[in-house]
Design brief:
336 residues, alpha/beta, 14 helices, 16% strand, binds zinc ion
Amino acid sequence: MVTLAALTDHDLPHEERAHAFLAQARLRNEAPALAPVLAARGVGPYRGYNEVLGEIEHLVAQGYRAHPIGRSVEGEPIIALHLGQEPRGTLARATVILSGVHPMEWIGVETNLRVLQRLAETDLRDRAVIAIPLVNPDGFRRVDKSLRAGRRRFIRHNARGVDLNRNFDSRWGRLGLVQRLLGNLFHPGSAPASEPEVESIAHHLSVCRVDRALSLHSFGGAVLYPLASSTRPVHDVMEHRAWATRMARACDPRKPYKAASCARWAKGITAGGLELDWFHERHGAVSFLIECSRGGRSLRPSRLFDPFAWFNPPRPDREADAIANAVTPFVRGDLP
Ligand SMILES: [Zn+2]
């Protein structure tokens, strides 16, 4: 039995610490499985917070190393999963995969977990993979609770009302007129990386050689590359374009996703503080933000007025599979 005191004891073997904090988080958030409830409602079999933690435990059993890299505003662990070479303080090149930055975008989380299952069976050679499936656990839990209660709420922020994808330290606080008019919707926080979720990621990656990054959002059906803060092309736009085009086709061969720079895709509406630009600017990484799927909007009243259904397609397995196939070559370090 691992006691609470031992959780903060850095002498405890790493594996035991990982097991302990995962088990603790699951215990604290014990709840019946959400996927069958949502499936019965026609929303799709999306897994709730406790089930996602269970899947992370499963990935650890398959060889992933789990690191609690920090805590959210409400004290939930921010978990980084490592596979392949050790990325911290070494020369190993690393691919980072984020999801759950925006709490309603559960298809991104499912896709991340699917990619990780695939990679567990792959030889990563000299590469490291670092995945953070739930960047915003407090937001994810809030969506979980609201789905269980049958409420139809739109949730975008962390527990302090900050849009984590405006909080990264890259042209932070630069919001165009439209976003300023929408006020709190895109609240960037009080300073760059002011939020513990973003700060833990920046700190954890500060000693890693990140050369590829992927952040999984939803639901625009697009593979976006830097910049988000300007329509000016980046110096390595050709490499970005080559990968974006390839992944956009593979995500949906019948109707390829859009491949574009974020600012151009957003029709010239620019913003600072995005992870997309931060990975490129701070780490020199080839960086993508994928708007997974085209959501689940439909004229059925049950979906039409349900924000969760806008962001998440009704068949997550099929979509997550296709996107995982499309991004795996990039993640494991293949040439474009
Ligand atoms: Zn998003």
